[in-house]
Structures are given as C-alpha cells and as structure tokens.
C-alpha cells in the first residue's frame, strides 16, 4: 500500500505540474493570431505594386504638353528642337485652347460685352501719357525717318480666385523696327539687378527693418530721352 501510494502521489504531482504549464501553452496558442494578423496585412504590398505604373506613365525623356489634360500629348525631348518655331507653336496652342482670350485690338474690344471696361482702361492710359507729356505735336515725318508702329496690349488682372479685378490697357511702341546705329546707339532698362534685390532683403532681415511694396503706375514714362522718336498716330 505504501509503495502504491507513493507511485500514485508522484503521478499526481506530475499531472499537477503539467496543468500548471498548460496555461502557458494556451497563452502561446492565443498569441498565434498575431502572426495571422501580420499575414493579413501583406496584401498592402500588391497595392503598392499596382500604384507604381501610375508614377511611370511619363518617361524620363518625355515632357507633357501645355494641353496634356485635353489631348494627352507628350513631347519627346530627344526629337524636339527648341527654337522660334517651337515657341510659336506653344503660344498658338495656349491661345487656341483659351476659352476666353484677351482682345488683340481696339476693334475686338468694341464687340465685347465688357467694352465699357476696356474703354475706361484705354482712356486711363491716354490720360497718363498726356499727363507725362510722352507725345509731342502731330507733325509730318521727315523723309529720312521711318516711324515706328504701335500696338495696344489688353490684359485682365485676376486674383487668386481667378476673378477679374482690373482691366489694363497699354499703348506700346514697336521698337523692334528701329535700326541699331541709325535710330539708336544703345539700350538700357532701369531694372534692379537680382543680386542687389537679394542684398537689400538680407540687409533688412539682419537689421530688423520693415520692407514696403510700392507700385508706380507707368514707371518707364518717367525716363528722359536724348533724341526724338517718330511713331504712327494710334487709333
């Protein structure tokens, strides 16, 4: 009886030890679904692979055109020659695809619904030219002088919401018809150099100064001229 009791007691102790270890094994089995959860997240990789072709739609040697949204046209950089013909074609495409283009002359302004706005802008430009005595009296052109042409430039200024905030008209002389050495000797444009502008900004920042922006209307009309220039009478 004693030996049998000892054997049964030892068996009971072994079973008790097994029961104490069993919860740990069950806990390990319960943690296994985390591995399954990781496996369930793997489908994200195929999604990334599907997005990759979208980024590679335009090859490195291609450039999208200005009308790519409407036509899907792409330019091959290796076969395109950048010259005046290409620049003209780009400008023509922009004008052709513009649903509301700017008027090109006074006659087109007259046939538009916003003609009163353009008329007001034209009159403001003429008043500014008269105030600064840009034009002299109307005279006969000398025989050895070729008068330069003129052109009206009409622009509508827009804000960040693409709303029209101002109608602007400028009367410009077609100076490209002048001949160097005959009509003029040198040209000069009173524009600040970019290096000087950056220096002034850095100086204001370092000294803690305030900077103000000022817009001068018809700035170039304040310059003086050394010789007379004859221009055709604008309409």
- Output the strand order for the largest sheet: 1-2
Distance between the termini: 134 Å
What is the gyration radius calculated from CA atoms? Answer: 40 Å
Largest β-sheet summary: 2 strands, antiparallel
Number of helices: 7
Give me the secondary-structure category.
mainly alpha
State the helicity in percent bands: 40-55%
Mean pLDDT: 75
Q: What general outline do the C-alpha atoms trace?
A: extended
Q: How do the SSEs run, as a string of H and E?
A: HHEHEHHHEEH
Describe this structure in words.
There is one protein chain. This protein has 235 residues and is mostly helical. Among the domains are: 57-97, no CATH class; 106-222, no CATH class. 45% of the residues lie in helices and 11% in strands. The chain has seven helices and four strands; from the N terminus they run H-H-E-H-E-H-H-H-E-E-H. The protein has helices spanning 2-41, 44-55, 68-71, 84-97, 106-110, 115-131, 194-207, and strands at 62-64, 74-76, 150-158, 164-173. It has a two-stranded antiparallel sheet. The protein has a two-stranded antiparallel sheet with strand order 3-4. Strand 3 and strand 4 form a beta hairpin. The longest helix has 40 residues, at 2-41. The protein is extended and about 125 Å long. The termini are far apart. Residues 1-7 and 22-56 have low confidence and may be disordered.
């Amino acid at each position: 009886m004693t030996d049998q009791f000892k054997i049964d007691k030892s068996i009971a102790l072994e079973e008790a030890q097994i029961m104490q270890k069993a919860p740990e094994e069950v806990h390990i089995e319960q943690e296994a679904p985390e591995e399954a959860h990781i496996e369930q997240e793997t489908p994200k990789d195929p999604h990334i692979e599907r997005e990759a072709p979208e980024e590679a739609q335009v090859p490195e040697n291609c450039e999208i055109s200005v009308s790519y949204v409407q036509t899907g046209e792409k330019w091959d950089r290796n076969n395109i020659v950048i010259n005046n013909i290409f620049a003209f074609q780009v400008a023509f495409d922009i004008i052709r695809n513009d649903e509301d283009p700017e008027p090109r002359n006074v006659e087109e302004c007259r046939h538009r619904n916003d003609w009163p706005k353009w008329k007001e802008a034209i009159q403001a430009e003429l008043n500014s030219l008269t105030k600064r005595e840009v034009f002299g009296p109307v005279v006969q052109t000398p025989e050895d002088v070729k008068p330069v042409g003129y052109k009206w430039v009409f622009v509508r200024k827009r804000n960040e919401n693409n709303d029209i905030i101002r109608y602007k008209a400028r009367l410009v002389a077609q100076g490209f018809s002048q001949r160097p050495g005959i009509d003029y000797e040198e040209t000069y444009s009173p524009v600040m150099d970019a290096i000087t502008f950056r220096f002034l900004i850095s100086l204001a920042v370092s000294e803690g100064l305030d900077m103000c922006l000022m817009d001068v209307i018809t700035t170039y009309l304040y310059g003086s001229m050394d010789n007379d220039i004859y221009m055709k009478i604008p309409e």
